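INFO  loader      accepted 1 record
INFO  loader      residues=419
INFO  predictor   begin
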Amino acid sequence: MTEAITASDVMEAAAGPDVHLLVPERDEADPEVSIVIPAVNEAITISEFVQWCHEGLAAAGVRGEILIVDSSTDATADLALAGGARVLKTPKRGLGRAYIDAVPFIRGRYVIMGDADCTYDFRELGSFVEQLRAGNDFAMGSRWKGSIEAGSMPWLHQHLGTPITTWILNRLFGSTFSDIHCGMRGITRDALSRMGLMSQSWEYASEMVIKSVRMELKTAEVPVTFLKDRDGRLSHHRREGWTSPFKAAWINLRAMFIYGSDFFAFKPGLVLLALGLLLTVPLSAGSVRIGAVTFSLYWMLLGVTLSLIGLQSVFFACLAQVLCDYTGKARKRWLGVFRYSRAMAVSFGLFFLGVLAAGALIVTYINDGLVLPSASARIDHVGLMGLFLMICGFSVFVFTLLLHATGVRYGQIDRIDAP
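INFO  predictor   done
INFO  writer      dumping tokens
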């Protein structure tokens, strides 16, 4: 007799042979909320944590499931299953990867994340449900707006690490979060699926926050209670050694810098381009003397260098914005500025003018018996301006092609002149 194929079988097959779902005897058939928790060797706290989740769901008056993503070598899975939680058995591949593995198995409309160590009080999860039901896509927990029990956070984390990295992320992305590393957070399943998490380790926390901003998710902060570890339990950072917090900080900063790369390129590039042009354009007709200072060909070379660095920085920033674009606004904006036909006309025009100006220097060079003029000659300035225009024209040409090539990804390559 052929056995019936269940939805769990299909999800496991899609997730891979190393992922296996265990379902408790008393399982919620139609959950509104999914509590998704990675766990590695949390036998000390897992039973109480699952009980807290049940109490929190009951207090909030919501149907929910508890999904423990387990990579333990102790009794964590058995204890969680006995407490009424679903257990997704996966290899130990990192905190971020645990959430990625869990996505196909989430059944609830709303997802609440956190830790299984009883440091976040899941009996208070109702505040997250309220914010999500109110129409928010993302509910970010905040220990700073809630309470932090004495001894629950190392001094370095509480007074330096978290405040500084939160400040950096807010500056890079124009956000207003008070605690980007809070592990307890809520999100709609739809937003989580569209987010497409990629991080395998601790940096998932920053990736989620950054993408919530990039996706323009409707977001609220929820005060949470943060408690110290239970006696006999070591935090994951302490298990992995004293360097673990520093590694976590570094990979989180790496995520911020990569996703926010346009911050370092766009405005600084505009400034460099403006300064470079202020030097380059006035000197294109020859040296200029202002008081005791003579702005010669060498000043013009500096201007050309600054201009080209600035121009390339702006172009790189535009491409970074398009690559990290979840709303389509950045791509639409830059396609409007660099319409294909218009941008190509500009690039060819700049290159042609550059050839003419550089050609004048070549003609002079040939007529003078293959000897370059002195550095103070006006024709040198004209020739350098020609080379500058040729480089600018070619840069605009290549950038326009790359910008419109992003349509291959978005399926809009045939609308190359669309604003």
